[in-house]
Amino acid sequence: MEGDCLSCMKYLMFLFNFFIFLGGACLLGLGIWVIVDPTGFREIVAANPLLFTGAYIMLAMGALLFLLGFLGCCGAIRENKCLLLFFFMFILLIFLAELSAAILAFIFRENLTREFFTKELKKHYQRNNDTDVFSATWNSVMITFACCGVNGPEDFEAIPHLPYSSLEKATATPEACCQRELQSREGMFVNKEACLSGNERFQNRQGCYTVILNSFETYVYLAGALAIGVLAIELFAMIFAMCLFRGIQ
Known about the structure:
Layout: H1 2-36, H2 41-47, H3 49-78, H4 81-107, H5 114-124, H6 133-145, H7 192-196, H8 208-247
Helix pairs in contact: 1-3, 1-8, 2-3, 2-6, 3-4, 4-8
């Protein structure tokens, strides 16, 4: 009976570690995508220290979970007490680090509010100055998501004009807010002159905050569910690791 329980525990341990292995692979892949993605998110991550740190923490956590899931599977199948103890200690450290990251994210959540982005946009945005990382990033976001500012074109009324285009002197709306046939930097403008002259028909009027929030709402809930699932799996894996460790003769 004891042997059957030990065998059952061993395979359950293997199963939980296999899910940890898959969870680590997902986090690793997501972290790599955020850092190297060519559609503008790389610049957003680089420009925001909080997001920059979070992306690399996610990458590191994914790599560690990937490795430890593999070690846990090996330790369970081979019934190696040294590997099981090593696995338990490191999975405990990762579990505590993930809880700390979640608490910090909750504490600093006000840095991702509409008011915060509006303030930063009005303070740092330089219109068509693509040599400025902040401005180039915002232009890429507005072009990619067919949006304008944080709340709408009115965000740019207090931003001084730069002499990159004589047309822009007629309106507060930057070139990146003009409608395009294809939403990319290479896409042709529907009517650039009318847009920069103040014709709202040829401008993207919706704010980027709402557009991006709606676009990623599903993924945010999915990421939250995945994080909770990974934490639960880690907790069960630690319990099974200790039980298996004590059961091995």
